[in-house]
Structure prediction request, 359 residues.
Amino acid sequence: MNKSMDQLRPLGFRGRLKSVLDERKLSHHEVARVISVHRDKYLISNGDIQVLAELSGGLRYTAQSAIDLPTVGDWVYANIFDQQTLAIIHGLIPRTSTLSRKRAGKETTEQLIAANVDIAMIALPLDQSLNLRRLERYLVMVHSGAIKAAILLTKADLVSPEKIEAIKAELLAVVANTPILSVSVLDPFSVASFRGTFLSAHTYCLLGVSGAGKTSLLNALLGETRFATAQLSDKTGKGKHTTTARELVALDNGALIIDTPGMREMGHVNVDQGIEDTFSLLGKLNSQCQFNNCTHQNEPGCAIQAGLVQGEISAERFDHYQQLMRESAFNDRSLAQRKERDKKLGKLIKSVKYAKNRS
Ligand SMILES: Nc1nc2c(ncn2[C@@H]2O[C@H](COP(=O)(O)OP(=O)(O)O)[C@@H](O)[C@H]2O)c(=O)[nH]1
Ligand SMILES: [Mg+2]
Ligand SMILES: [Zn+2]
Prediction:
């Protein structure tokens, strides 16, 4: 049993999670957090000890798909037995947020990257040219999972302060309400002031292309080279793909942080809200069009066309908005079709089993 809920605070447990706890389950199980996932085992912590846990049969059999299984950052009901070397996870505590994407490949399935993340830091390396379209994809992913976004300009030592200010100004056009920070792991002062922006008991994740400097930054925050980063010997200077396993790491300022590997493909499912939030101005203009079903091509009274003419929004941003809407509609449709297929297959398997049992 948890000695007290206070013991969970260093793991990121805060008031708003208390309201979703099931008192009945607490009388049989304790609360723990998933630190990392290893094939079919989960490293969990109850704030006192860390132990490898397995899923209960019930949890395994009621899971409809991978998103019903624990992921890094999840809060779970667990039992820890056997001199603390064996533990069973009985259920998930409702998630306050999820970070997920469409799994790379042809089949449309949703892949969970992390759960219960408060703030996603999207790392944009200053040694690469700014890719606003990729940033918009990250923002859609973050916003659709009910996570707050922050933008982190990395490798600040490689460009002039004036250049950083110019990039910040350019970014403001796309992300008016998102904090923008800059940092260099080579500058201890910038690392210290970056460390000062973290809130205790809040969970952060680091997102961004491979080579952006995420793992280097995590090591700098930890003050030790705990995780492998790409070597400078890499001729392209862009860094290799080194981060593979995701892990919840506690910083000494009380914040929790999850590093992620770069994503080659970033498709979306169920992201309508995320698109709304990311392209809020377009959503606002859309609602001001004269016709409800305006396609923003050449209808009279189209607020979006007016916005384009006045330079309030860029043509690239509008194109990308439309592309993401089409893509997300397509992915949602194929996800629904696959679920339907799986359901039919499930029924078929059950009926075969039933027939077998009767014969
Ligand atoms: N100049 C400079 N290089 C950096 C900085 N941060 C990371 N790097 C380099 O960028 C490369 C990729 O870093 P890594 O942390 O592995 O990136 P990740 O893929 O985002 O985790 C490595 O060669 C780092 O040494 C920085 O602040 N300044
Ligand atoms: Mg890395
Ligand atoms: Zn319109």
Q: What stands out?
A: Residues 232-241 have pLDDT under 50 and may be disordered. Residues 315-358 form the longest helix (44 residues).
